[in-house]
Amino acid sequence: MLPRVFHAEDGKDLAQRIQPRGYLFSIVKYFGPFLLLAAGFFIFGARFFDTRILKLQSPKSGFLPCITVEPSGINRWIKPPSSLLHNMSDHELFWLASFAPEVKNYPFKRLPKVAFMFLTRGPLPLSPLWEKFFKGNEGLYSIFIHSLPGYKASYPKDSVFYKRQIPSQVAEWGRMSMCDAEKRLLANALLDLSNEWFVLLSESCIPLYNFSIIYKYFQRSHFSFMGVFDDKGPHGRGRYNPNMAPLITIDQWRKGSQWFEVDRNLAIYILQDTKYYAKFKEFCKPPCYVDEHYFPTMLHIEKSDLIANSSLTFVDWSRGGAHPATFGKDDITEEFMKKKLLSGWDCMYNGQHSSLCVLFARKFAPSSLQPLLQLAPALLGYG
Predict the structure, then answer these.
(1) I need a labelling partner for 214 at 20 to 30 A (CA). Which of 17, 140, 256, 383 fits?
(2) How far apart are CA 84 and CA 145, in angstroms?
(3) Which parts of the chain span the membrane according to its record (predicted)?
(4) CA gap 210, 381 in Å, rounded
(5) What is the mean pLDDT of residues 104-124?
(6) If pLDDT is split at 50, 70 and 90, which confidence band does 9 have?
(7) Domain 83-380, what fold?
């Protein structure tokens, strides 16, 4: 084989093929340190960001970043929602809240709480009084507020009512939408497994005793409290619609107060009901007021052995009319509080006669706040 002759053109071609490699080597030579430094900053930044995320998610911080680590293990079930805001429909919410554990021995230390559920149109004018009632009892209560959808609360961050509004819808007096709002409150409160007792209140309600007395009253009671009675007049049986039979007969028809206290088992049962709900939604419309008949009738038929047939919230119907009396500034005196609200009661509590029969009262106008604040320490035991 003859040796290949090397020409000048070959050297030129070789130089062109070698040049890109030499150029790349030059880039690495001059810019390599900068690339290594940038990589170091990237690794450090990633670790720092991860550390910050973990710190922000710690229990000591109330702020949750957009990127969160979902709780794992038992914590995903026992930890109450960090925010009351969600985009679940009522159907989804009720379904989720209706779960009940079959094993009654909880695998964690459960401290039972009272869920105070406020059904309001907007603000809570008596909130300063409630603040004094709740003070010092952290961990024993939770608060839920259902207001008109357009209302934006402005409670300060140190208020017990701060960010306690739940997703709400319009609730019309006397219609099923009112009971829907009550069920919405129950469902949101049930998402916290530590809530054991559920109290429905309005913006015009006040507590008549200190927190300790009310908590022990619920804790020791064998029953839930729902006003249930058979009113044979036009405002009771007179509102019955025969189309409800045979599911509900006129002999089973009951009336009661809208304001109730139920335990966890009854709260779940109320959410699970569909058959009575459908009948009331179709056949109980004004002048049949569903919020006065639906829960009392249903629980009388299905769970009468679990309710005390009485409400724990006092209202005064003595002045007549479609609504109970409203108490203003001039009504709030020491004599009024003692005679009207704090004495003269006789009821059954766990099968025994008791003088402690009502724990809350309504309707109190915003003007009553200042005299109530003055009388509360001596007469009501808080403030």
Answers:
(1) 256
(2) 10
(3) 30-49
(4) 5
(5) 94
(6) very low
(7) Spore Coat Polysaccharide Biosynthesis Protein SpsA; Chain A (3.90.550)
